[in-house]
Amino acid sequence: MAILGIGVGLFVALRMEQRYTDHEPKWETSMRVAFDPQSIFPDRDLLYILILGTDYNYTNRDIMYTKNSRSDTMILARLDLRNKKLRLLSIPRDTRVQIPGDGNDRINSAYAIGGPHLSETVVQNLIQIPIDYYVRIKEEGLKHLVDAIGGIDVDVEKNMDYDDRWGNLHIHLKKGFQHLNGEKSAEYSRFRHDETGDYGRIERQQKVVKAIQKRFTDPAVLADIPKIVQVAKDNVETDLKFTQLFALASIFKSTRIASVQTFTLPTIPKDYLEGRYWVSYVDLDPGQAQKTLGEFTLPEPTASSNANPSLLRVEVLNGSGIPGKAQEVAERLRNKGFLVARVGNADRFDYTETEIVDHTGQGEGESVAKVLQRGSTLSVPQDPRQVDITVIVGRDE
């Protein structure tokens, strides 16, 4: 459900812009400035936004309360500002992680313990991708939004029946193509009580999002934008500024639904003995998770480049002795679309100048040198750690 923050929020912001610029010409100049990604997101080609869908708890009298609510859905959005491409990575809610200050737990517990910022930290530690912003969607947000746009068309793939009185979850859907209102859309998105578990639920969420995006092409829906905007305001929390939302709306206004790539972080089930009890989690699949992350972060090929730098695996090593320097350089490379496979320390800390080591033998290190504004690279045989480029950060950075 939380994916609606990016998938729908940006489209809503775009339609707001069109409505106001059509009727209030004085806004037009300022809106054009807001839509310029170079002015709103200077020196950024990529953004990573964590989208959280939070649930509620209920008393035995069916009264809703929000204390210690968990993130029912967790999705990382990769926004390529230069190529106007959007990718979405779903993270299974039962993934076992180390939560700072609280020990091992499921990843959806991070929100209950420390809110969106702790969730950002935990995800960053898990997949080694820096997160720029977050969007949180309240549990009722999907229902209200779908009702505001008049429902959505979904092909329900099977009969679904499940009741959970404690979680106030009651799902009763019949197989077949049908028009779902807000309540039924939420039921469809939350169902995970079959052999596919959380993975099936993630696929259903992705179907719902595309159905909602399709509704935004209907003129009848666009005629009721004020109502939809109010729903977004009541159900969305984010640290993105208003002008940033407008800028993103402008950038992605022509993005087709079919072009949005969706991924799910591969995991494997595993039980752990905690005290006297066995607890079921899922762990990252060591081989498949790295492959998926590589595809998720793979930059788009550009017509102006002779080679695709996205195919290069880069490691960044701190040789300056200055804490945090390697992370800074790694983030600069990630923002330009490079796959940073590793960040660590060099063999020593007295490097005065940054060195770029090319293991490919084909001059591929020049693309990294260009980003870091370095004049040359050093070519050496293939690194045993199987990276293509090694950057040793010196004190000149």
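Next protein, fold it too.
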Amino acid sequence: MSNPDFQDIKNYKPSKNEEFMNPKQLSHFKKKLTIWRNQLVNDAKSTINHIQEDSNKVADIIDRATLEEEFALEFRTRDRERKLINKIDKTLHEIELGNYGYCKTCGAIISLLRLEARPTASECIDCKTIAEKKEI
């Protein structure tokens, strides 16, 4: 990728020596989330084009059934990605509100390592672990 925004993200690493969620960190995560969101939207558009082009080409009933099964799998994947896009949108809204990077449950800082790995994280690792244990 030669996108300058991508290069900025690739070259900048938020540091715990900086003020937490300073403008540079916020900009970094906002760009990271926006690039991710745009990629998911482009993938969805590509799937729609692929399905429209391929669905008219198959005349054999067995090939048609195979193709429809592939489409069903793609639709499930895109549905998960649609939910992820919604989560990214909510996270971008949290950045705008100034709440990004803080646990929605306890208010603690979410570690930069966690946010780098999962930029949509809304809970610190301790609260997320407790929530997952309750689900079991």
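About the second fold: The chain has five helices and no strands.
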